Amino acid sequence: MKFLIFLGSVRESSPPKPVRLGLRVSKACMALMQLYYPQHEVELIDPLDYGLGPVFKPEFSYSRSHTPKDLKNLADKIAQADGYIMVSPEYNHSMSPALANLLNHFGSSLFSYKPSAIVTYSAGQWGGARAAVGMRTFLSELGCLPVSAMIHLPRAQEVFDEEGAVIEPSEQK
């Protein structure tokens, strides 16, 4: 089976130096998937790796021969995947604009009837729980089958290092 982990943020935060907190969480998800399910293929989808920009024209509006290369490549990956892990911070009680923008480039036919896990995180105490509630509806409208249990990670900067490994309590400041 093949799973895609969608990194839902492009932002660098400052705990205490600029880091991509979402990348830490996504790497942790990837490491856990590889540890517990080594027989499955797992790929990280980082919005910074695709030059998609705002959604002026979604992927399904192009003829196959005129679809921009990055859009076509990502559409093919989404279609070939068996499930998704959506990783997002909370922005104003909602999922991140970067994740919404990335997903809005594609129609529901690519996501239909495939499971999607929701992982949210924050630098504060709530772990993105409010964003996760809205994500469930958003992903359902995309055709996904959101997993009922969601994962919320508060104070993620204190939990994961730059490589997504858990910071041991003795190493915390």
TrEMBL record:
Q: Name one GO cellular component term.
A: cytosol
Q: Which GO molecular function entries does the Swiss-Prot or TrEMBL record give?
A: FMN binding; oxidoreductase activity
One Pfam family, short name:
FMN_red
Which SUPFAM superfamilies has this protein been placed in?
Answer: Flavoproteins
- What is the superkingdom listed in this entry's lineage? Bacteria
Cofactor(s) essential for the protein: FMN
Residues covered by the NADPH-dependent FMN reductase-like domain: 1-151
By what name is this protein known? Answer: NAD(P)H-dependent oxidoreductase
- What are the entry keywords? Flavoprotein, FMN
The keyword Flavoprotein is annotated on this UniProt entry: yes
InterPro entries per the record?
Answer: Flavoprotein-like_sf, FMN_Rdtase-like_dom, NAD(P)H-dep_reductase
